[in-house]
Specification:
2 domains, about 525 residues, globular
């Protein structure tokens, strides 16, 4: 028994950033569980069982260095989060599962290739082409550039607590995996380029969004781009910046998606132009929303500033790099403060502020589970802002790091002047909400583009393609496999997972005897 425990314990990483990140995942799951109490009155017990299984499997993904446990854990994460979407619609479940199934296939191929080249445990990969294959393996699941298309449509329809889980933590599992395999000394230029494209493209799309949840989805992609860029840069401070960005963005975005559910119920809308007198109607939610957006923008004395400064300081100190990161910082300020402008400045009535606040607060419908979740997220964001070294030893060297707050304050003032002028002169950049944002429409556009070459005008039933074609294709394949095997041997098929497990653990079992 002792030998088995030692071998099991050896399959997990108890040093570096990963125990800290596992702890963060637990706290974020607690936040979403609190928010879900009011949201999921129907089949609540089943939802919390799924949440518990999700928590265990995501923790395994973060801590393990065993390929089998890693793949097994991530598939459980996919399955549990897919079933959570059932509280919205089964159509969404099937779409999400099919997309993640393709991502899993690529990741499985990449993992088997790594094992065949002698990487029997998850660790530093020195081969550039193998790094590239593994990056592509996590691309679909973690929303890397060109593979991010599913995030906004899924968030548009997913329940707010599930969006908080997906955006706050699930998509970050791939970047935590990349922290394990990318050499800290060299980074990866391809990952750097993908990160840069994600920041610019998704940041612009976030700026052009009128729907709060769509804006949060695109800003997630943009902020994930910073993590990819940091890991691609390489270096001690870049990796530390990536870890702080994972943590800071996790709490900020989880708080914002929980808040988005509250705002939608309060106003009956997700369009930011409809949020009038938000401070009076939901003062505590307003405070959590404001703090989270300030962190996303990278304002001085926020968790977002610390991570962005570390990533910026790790770049080559030439004028182009400085100008580039100044522009990236301005873009984050632009889409974050545009939301702040519509929430708290534009068409807001602050006359008799104290009287109105007390009157509205007396008529405020308190949901203590929601408020507890927002309080936890806000508290951790404040702690992370003033304690970047975090618990443990992995980031202890940041205690002596000079974050150049005066330089950051100077840049922030320049950003505020530029953004303030643009917002006021352009009346908040009013754009029309995106209509019918869905995976079906994306497929429709792709098919129309493909057939436009032949100048054919054909209307495709994309709903049937998703609901019937992909789903039935998987079902029919499984049914043919079933018919191929003589039905009397159906029970024997149950031995297949057992045989696979024996094969995977053969070396460990052989060592026992």
């Amino acid at each position: 028994m002792t030998v088995l425990w030692q071998q099991f314990s050896a399959s997990f990483i108890w040093q570096s950033y990963f125990p800290l990140l596992a702890g963060v995942g637990i706290i974020l799951t607690l936040m979403t569980s609190l928010a879900a109490w009011k949201y999921f009155a129907r089949n609540r017990v089943f939802y919390y069982l799924l949440t518990l299984l999700y928590l265990l499997s995501s923790t395994i993904v973060i801590l393990t260095n065993n390929w089998f446990l890693f793949l097994f854990g991530w598939e459980l994460v996919t399955l549990t989060t897919a079933l959570m979407l059932a509280w919205s619609s089964w159509r969404l479940v099937r779409q999400y599962f099919i997309i993640q199934f393709f991502g899993s296939s690529i990741l499985l191929l990449a993992a088997l290739t790594a094992i065949s080249f002698g990487y029997n445990k998850i660790g530093i990969i020195n081969s550039n082409w193998l790094q590239l294959l593994l990056i592509l393996g996590v691309a679909m699941k973690s929303g890397l550039f060109l593979f991010h298309f599913w995030l906004p449509p899924i968030h548009a329809e997913a329940p707010a607590p599930v969006s908080a889980i997906l955006s706050g933590w699930v998509v970050k599992l791939g970047y935590i995996f990349l922290l394990k395999i990318i050499p800290i000394t060299t980074g990866n230029k391809f990952l750097y380029l993908l990160g840069l494209l994600m920041i610019i493209y998704a940041g612009w799309q976030a700026f052009r969004s009128a729907d709060l949840k769509i804006m949060l989805a695109y800003s997630t992609i943009s902020q994930l781009g910073l993590i990819a860029l940091a890991i691609g840069t390489g270096g001690r401070y870049a990796f530390a910046g990536a870890v702080l960005q994972i943590i800071g963005h996790g709490f900020a975005k989880t708080t914002l998606f929980i808040s988005s559910g509250i705002w939608q119920q309060e106003y009956g809308s997700r369009i930011i132009y409809d949020f009038k007198n938000a401070v009076f109607r939901r003062p505590l939610t307003s405070a959590a929303t404001l703090l989270s957006f300030l962190s996303l923008s990278g304002l001085v004395f926020t968790a977002g500033y610390n991570s962005k400064y570390l990533i910026k300081s790790a770049q080559i100190g030439d004028n182009f790099a400085g100008l580039l990161f100044f522009g990236l910082g301005l873009l984050s300020f632009l889409y974050s403060f545009r939301i702040i402008y519509w929430f708290f400045i534009k068409n807001q009535n602050y006359h008799n502020f104290k009287k109105n606040l007390l009157f509205k607060n007396n008529n405020y419908s308190y949901y203590f589970s929601d408020l507890a979740a927002l309080l936890v997220g806000s508290l951790v964001l404040i702690i992370a802002a003033f304690w970047p070294e975090m618990p443990g030893d992995s980031l202890a060297f940041l205690a002596a790091k000079d974050f150049h707050l005066l330089i950051g304050l100077r840049d922030n003032l320049i950003y505020l002047v530029i953004v303030g002028y643009l917002l006021i002169s352009q009346t908040g950049f009013i754009v029309q909400p995106r209509t019918q944002l869905s995976l079906e429409n994306y497929l429709q556009s792709f098919l129309n583009f493909s057939y436009s070459i032949s100048r054919k005008s054909i209307i495709f039933d994309t709903e049937r393609i998703f609901e019937s074609f992909f789903y039935r294709a998987i079902y029919n394949s499984a049914h043919k496999l079933y018919k191929f095997v003589y039905q009397d041997f159906t029970m024997q098929l149950l031995w297949i997972p057992i045989f696979l497990t024996i094969i995977l653990f053969w070396q460990q079992l052989y060592a026992l005897f």
